[in-house]
Amino acid sequence: MKFKYEKTVLIKNLEKEFDFLSKSIEKINLPLGFSEFIFYVISELFINIKEHAQVNKGLIVLEIKNDKCFIKVRDQGIGLRQSYLKKKIVVKDDFSAIEFALSGLSTKSSQERGFGLYSIKKLVETLRGDLIITTGSAKVLVQENKINLQRLSQKFSGTMIEIKTPIKKLDFYKAII
Amino acid sequence: MKNKILIKKKYLIFREDARKLAQRIKKSSSEKISVDFSETIFMSRSFVDELLNQIEKQKKDIKFLSLNPSLARLIPKVKQTKDRIQKILSRS
Asked: Which of A14, A24, A94, A106 lies 20 to 30 Å from A53, alpha-carbon distance?
């Protein structure tokens, strides 16, 4: 089981890339529910880029190797904290911005509540994987229900989400909140 | 008369797609609308969330047709979560 995909994708071309990825992943024969997880993650992260990052493209890395899956989605947009500030949600620093995003609290009104990163965190926890979020001067690792914070010496431009999980069967529709 | 809208997109990802679909439904003169998703293989959670928001605002009788098994499970799941949140918010 081996697959590697890395591409900077324009938001308007995401559907075309999904088509390509879908056909490629189909050949790998992933366990039940796992391809749903991959598409869920990439789509929600790209929605975040479109709605919050103020850029028109993002990098997607998807690597499947030795029963492990690595997903990275990165943009070079305004970063999490700025996106909250633009919506008049005051978060004191980049760590607070990440915590806010992981808590399931959204920049949207209650009717349009978004679950992007919160639901991804829940799925990654179900798979016993790692989730790393990097934005501004903060890097946060979510691993085994624990959150580790790291202050970066150099400011990171935009937002990067990295996910490492074992590849295994997943009752996807039970796992998503 | 019943009206049918066929969705030709295979991937429905962005909230904007849901808002466009809601506009099509709104513009239809019929009060009973069927939305045919037979050509759709993927919907993002955000698309579903937005579609449910938009549909709630309309007083039409809207039915989703030909959903693949994944989508048929996703839509009620998103609705369930939305209802739960609404309940919590109305209590607070």
From this structure: A24
Cβ–Cβ of B42/A177 closer than 8 Å? no
**Chain A residues with CB inside 8 Å of B51's CB?**
none
Beta carbons of A62 and A3 less than 8 angstroms apart: yes
- Shortest CB distance from B13 goes to which of A36, A43, A177? A43
| Block residue for tokens 């806010």 | A100
Q: What is the SS3 assignment for A129-173?
A: CEEEEEEEEEEEEEECCEEEEEEEEEEEEEEEEEEEEECCCCCHH
| Measured distance CA(B41)–CA(B70) in Å, rounded | 8
Task: Read off the tokens for A138.
Answer: 């903060």
Contact A69, A164 (CB under 8 A): yes
Residues with Cβ within 8 Å of A130's Cβ and at least 6 positions away in sequence, in order, are: A124, A141, A142, A143, A162, A163, A164, A165
Cα B84 to Cα B66: distance, rounded to the nearest angstrom? 27
ipTM of model: 0.86
What's the whole-model pTM score? Answer: 0.90
Cα–Cα distance measured from residue B80 to residue A76, given in angstroms and rounded to the nearest whole number? 35
**Contact call for A15 and B85, based on CB within 8 A:** no
Distance CA B24, CA B11 (A): 18
Instruction: Give the chain B residue nearest A40 (alpha carbons).
Output: B44
